[in-house]
Amino acid sequence: MDAASRLKIGISACFMHPDPARTTFAIKTLQYLEQSIAHWVMSTGALAVLVPSPTGPTQRGDVTLDHYAQWLDGLVLHGGADVSPLSYGEQPLQERWAGDKLRDDYEIELVRAFERHGKPVFGVCRGLQLLNVAFGGTLYQDIQTQLPQALVHRDAASYDRNFHTISIEPGTRLAQLYQPAVRYKVNSIHHQAVKALAPGFAVEAVSDEDGLVEAIRRPAAGQPYVAAVQWHPEFHRPGADTIDDAALLDDFLAAALATRENPRTP
């Protein structure tokens, strides 16, 4: 397959802000992605493209996020820093939960650009939380503090080897991709979670132990594809006893192909 026929999937950037204590590029802003998410996107032949923020103190030229949304076939929002409580109308309960408002603003505008062009968006972990906030929902700033009875959803020591099971909601798109009666095992690397679900969205999976939201989707017909999961599919190892995430990626890429073949004029 040549490059022109392959799907081009944008991946939002993680930010590393200036830090004098850092030994490399200490006073510079870095924009990057974790390689596993790129490899997951590329696993079926799609091209992964990092979408940098075009704004900032060193901005040059006239490139906008709309240019990327017009050119690319879909967008993946991946993990990283907390979503700032300021982005959903709250103050941080603790300074360490202040999150990254600059990244929030960039990703929310990125989502809006892909919406304008009718392109599908898929969120992973922070990506689910960002989508929920972008469309009017709210978050628990810290699960352990605000829901002390909940399962431990983030263990720094075990990181992506911290697992729990999920239940898939019957009647959802996820239930069409998987068997709703089966309890699937997923990784869990988050301390924030959906509190108030964004209007127009449906919960597609929940944590078995405490009912926290694990997957969401906007199911309305005629609107661009928007879906997300709270776990990291890119960290699951093929052949392991965790959920097979190939169906998730195939569903998203099928939506991207459909929009390429039937483009929407913004």
Overview of the molecule:
With 266 residues, this protein is of the alpha/beta class. It has seven helices and 13 strands. The protein has helices at residues 35-42, 65-71, 101-116, 126-134, 143-146, 173-177, 246-261, and strands at 8-12, 14-16, 30-32, 47-51, 74-77, 121-124, 139-140, 163-168, 184-187, 193-194, 202-207, 213-217, 226-229. The strands form three sheets. The protein has a nine-stranded mixed sheet, sandwiched between helices. Helix 2 (65-71) crosses helix 3 (101-116). The protein starts with 7 loop residues before the first strand and ends in a 5-residue tail after the last helix. The mean pLDDT is 95.
The poorly predicted ranges are none
Overall SS class: alpha/beta
Helix content: 10-25%
Element pattern in H and E:
EEEHEHEHEHEHEHEEEEEH
Number of strands: 13
Largest sheet: 9 strands, mixed
Number of helices: 7
Distance between the termini: 29 Å
Rg calc = 18 Å
| 3D shape | globular
Strand content: 15-25%
Order the strands across the largest sheet as they lie in space: 4-1-5-6-13-12-11-8-9
The average pLDDT score comes to 95
